[in-house]
């Protein structure tokens, strides 16, 4: 069921289906020959022109992450071709059977990070819990970086102290 308690497809899936099914976008994205997957033929054009028209972003990697949360898989690792058993040409009613998978590390489903770690769903709403977790992770990373910097400074100072002695050794021999 969706947020309204009805049994319908999510906006992300509906919009994705509309993009793929639109004959005017076939030069960029279209159904495969078997009608059981879709192929993004021009990822650059897709990002700059189609994604912003349907979603609140233009990041193809966020789009792919979202596909992954719904269980889509890449058909060929060298192509932008994606498939899901319930994402079929002429079978739009099957979209409602596609469910988001839960994230194993944070428990957030159907989110993408937009490259910054801040979690948003494709309806433009942000996930406060994910933001809190991300802030905690960033603080830990910053503490680790600070420790590494202090260690590097210490080693540099030790190296600089040793250098004059080492230079004298080379000049004497």
UniProtKB/TrEMBL annotation:
Pfam families xrefs: HSF_DNA-bind
Keywords, in A-Z order: Coiled coil, DNA-binding, Nucleus, Phosphoprotein, Stress response, Transcription, Transcription regulation
Subcellular location: Nucleus
InterPro entries: HSF_DNA-bd, WH-like_DNA-bd_sf, WH_DNA-bd_sf
Keyword Nucleus (UniProt): yes
GO molecular-function term, one example from the UniProt record: DNA-binding transcription factor activity
Taxonomy, superkingdom: Eukaryota
SMART domains on file: HSF
Family under the similarity heading: Belongs to the HSF family.
Name of the molecule in the record: HSF-type DNA-binding domain-containing protein
Organism: Taxus chinensis
